[in-house]
Amino acid sequence: MYKYDQYDQAMVDTRVEEFRDQTRRRLEGKLTEAQFTPLRLKNGLYLQLHAYMLRVAIPYGTLDSRQMHALADIADTYDRGYGHFTTRQNIQYNWIKLEEAPDLLADLAKVEMHAIQTSGNCIRNISSDHFAGAAADELVDPRPYAELLRQWSSFHPEFNALPRKFKIAVIASETDRAAMRLHDIGINIVKNEAGELGAAFYVGGGMGRTPMIAPCINPFVPLDQLVTYAEACLRVYNRYGRRDNKYKARIKILVHELGAEEYTRQVEEEFAHLLGQGVEPPLAELERIRTYFEDPAFQDASNDTIDRSDPDFALWVDRNTVPHKREGYVSAVISLKPVGGIPGDATARQMHVMAELAKSYSFDELRVMHTQNIVLPHVRKATLYTLWQTLEAEGLGSPNLDMIEDIIACPGLDYCSLANARSIPVAQKIAERFASTGKTDALGQLKLKISGCINACGHHHAGHIGILGVDRKGVENYQLLLGGSEAEDVSLAKITGPGFDENGIVDAVETVTDVYTRERQDGERFLDTYRRIGMDPFKEALYG
Amino acid sequence: MAETLRYRDDEPVDHPAVTVDSFLDQSNATAVRIEPGDDARDLIPHLERLALVEVNFPAFGDGRGYSSARVLREAGYEGELRAVGDVLVDYLAYMRRCGFDAFEPDQQFDRDDVEAAFERWPEVYQAAADERTPIWAKRHA
C-alpha cells in the first residue's frame, strides 16, 4: 500500500490548515456563501437536506486497518455512528457540523487520508479495480498509475475551476470492474506488440442525464508520457468545454459535439506542445510508487482446502469469494447489502470489525468496491471459515455478491438535496421481495442499480435492471430500464415505458425477472437473455 | 477600484489594454485584455511587442483564464500577466503558478490574507509556469 513521505504529509497537513482558515473567514463573514461554497466542496463538504455531508477520499478504494479504524472513530465522534460507502469507492458521513469539519480533516490527515477534491469542478478522487493486485486476470497492478495521477491532479493550478467535475478510472485487465468507459477519462494499462506497457485512453464517458460510453482516443500512450497526455486532455477540456449550461458542461458533451476525431486531433496537438514543457515526472517516480504495491508475503497455501460441510458457509464461499492470482488464496467480498438494510452503509462497529479482519486475514488491506461492498483482497482459503463466522455474527455475511439483492443505490431523497425520489426504501423493498420469494438464487448474476434523480449516482444507466426515480407532479415515480452494463461489455440501459409508483416498481422488477426465467437459455444471465430477445417480451409482460 | 498587486520590478504600462480583436487590428498597442472566450494563442505571433496582458475573470468559477496564462508563458511571454476581475484571495497561489505576476481584483484584498495565501504551500505536486520545483523532482534529485 502507498505510504506518504514527508512531502505527501506536508500537503495534506497544509490543506487542513488552509481549510481551517477558510472556515474561520466564512464564519467571520469575510467570505460570502457563494465564495465559500466551491472551497468547501473541494474539501468534500456538501450542504444536504438536513446537514452537511462530508465525502472522504479513499484513493483507488484501497485502505488499511488503521485507516478503517479511523473512519469508524470519525463516525462515532462527528457523526451518528455510521458511514456510507459510495459508488466511487469513497465514504460519506451524513451529519457533519461545519465548525467541526477542520478537526475531522485533521484526524484524517493523521492516518494519511483526506477529503481533497472529492467534490467541486475539479479532478476527483481516482478510482480503480477493487481486485487490483489480487485478480487472477490482471496484466499489472493499476494502482501505481492511479497514485501517480492522484498526485498530479491534487491542487493542479490550471484545472482548479473546470467547467464541471472530472472523474478518472484506471484499470489493467480485460475485465472491467471499475466502469472505466463511463468515466470522463478511463485508462486501461495495456501491453503493445513489443511487450511494453502503455495506457489506452478512453475519453468522454459518463452517466448523468446524458449517458455516454467513452471512445478510445489513443490506444497506446507510453508510460513516460502518461501525465503529459492527461494534461493535454484536460487543457482542451478546460479551454473549450461548455460553460453556458451546467447540464452540458461535462467533457462527454465536448467530445460528442466536436466528434471524437476532432477532439483527439486537438489533444494530440496540445500533447505535442506539452511534451516540450517538462510536466512529466521521471519514470523513476513511477518505479518509486510501484515499490509500495509489491505483493504481500504470501505463504505456500497450495494445500489449503475449504471444508464445505456447513451449507451456509459453502453458499457464501460460492457467492462471495473470487479467484486470486496466488494458489490457495481468494479475494473475499464483505456484503454491505443485508436484506432490508441501506446499501453501502456500515456502522462504526462493523468498520472496526472489518479492520480487525483485514489485519488478521488479509495482510492489513481492504478495498471499497464501486458496488458499495468491501473486499478483503488476500485471504487464505484455510482461514475462510473463521472469517465467515465473524462476518455472520456482525451482520456482514450476506451471500449475495452481484445477485439481485446486491443493489447499488444512491442516498436519494432521504439525504440528498438534488434527489427527486427516495432510493433506499425501493432497494429495501426489492431485496425483501426477492429474499422472501426465494427467487434470488435462481436469477444468478443480476445487477440492479437505483438512482433517485437524473444525475445517476446510483448508476441506473449501467444496470442490467436500472431504476430511475423522478418527480411526477409532486409524486415519486420510478422508471424501469433494462440492458445496461458497466463492465467490459459496456452498454446503456433503455427505458421500458411509463413509470411506476413505489410498490408498482417492485412488482415490475419481479415481472421482468419472470420473463427472464421463462425465456433464458443455458447459462444465460439476465443481461444475455435481454440482449438476445430484445425489449418487446419484457414490455409485453409489463404493459401488455 | 482596488489596488493592484504587482510582483515585478519594471514600470507598469500606462495606457489601457485593448480587446484581442482591436489588438490584432492595430500594430502599435502594447497592452491587451483576454476574455474567457478568446484564444490566447492568437497573441503568440505578437508577444515581442506586448508589455501587458490582462486576463479577465468575470466570475471566479470560470477557469479558462488559467489555461490562457499558461499558454502564454509556455510560448515565452515575459511581460506582465495580470489577473483582473473576480479574483479572490483563495486562488492567488494557483494563479501565480500559472504565470500571473499581477492581480487587480474587483474587491480589495486583505494584506494578511494575501501573504498567507502565497506562503501557505511548502511544496507543489506539478510542474507549471512558475519556477517551483515539483515534489517528484525533489524526490529524484
Largest interface by residue count? A-B, 41 and 38 residues
Characterize the quaternary organization of these chains: heterodimer
Per CATH, the architecture of chain B is: 3-Layer(aba) Sandwich
β-strand amount of chain A: 15-25%
Protein traits:
heterodimer, A: alpha+beta, Sulfite Reductase Hemoprotein, domain 1, five-stranded antiparallel β-sheet, B: 141 residues, alpha/beta, Rossmann fold, 5 helices, 26% helix, 17% strand, globular
Structure description:
By secondary structure, chain A is α+β, with helices and mostly antiparallel strands. Chain A has four domains: 6-110, Sulfite Reductase Hemoprotein, domain 2; 127-290, Sulfite Reductase Hemoprotein, domain 1 (2-Layer Sandwich); 312-393, Alpha-Beta Plaits (2-Layer Sandwich), CATH 3.30.70; 408-543, Sulfite Reductase Hemoprotein, domain 1, CATH 3.30.413.10. Helices cover 36% and strands 17% of the residues of chain A. Chain A is built from 17 helices and 20 strands. Chain A has a five-stranded antiparallel β-sheet with strand order 1-2-5-4-13. In chain A, a hairpin with a 4-residue loop joins strand 1 and strand 2. Chain A starts with 5 loop residues before the first helix and ends with a helix. With 141 residues, chain B is an alpha/beta fold. Chain B has a single domain, classed as Rossmann fold (3-Layer(aba) Sandwich). Helices cover 26% and strands 17% of the residues of chain B. Chain B has helices at residues 20-25, 64-74, 92-97, 111-119, 135-139; strands at residues 5-6, 18-19, 31-34, 52-57, 80-85, 102-105. In chain B, strands 1-6-5-4-3-2 form a six-stranded mixed β-sheet. The termini of chain B are far apart. The mean pLDDT of chain B is 95. Chain A binds chain B through residues 5, 7-8, 10-11, 14, 17-18, 21-22, 25, 30, 35, 38-39, 121, 151-152, 154-163, 235, 238-239, 243, 273, 277-279, 281-282, 284-285, 288, and chain B through 36, 39, 60-64, 66-67, 70, 74, 88, 90-91, 93-95, 97-98, 110, 113, 116, 120-128, 134-140.
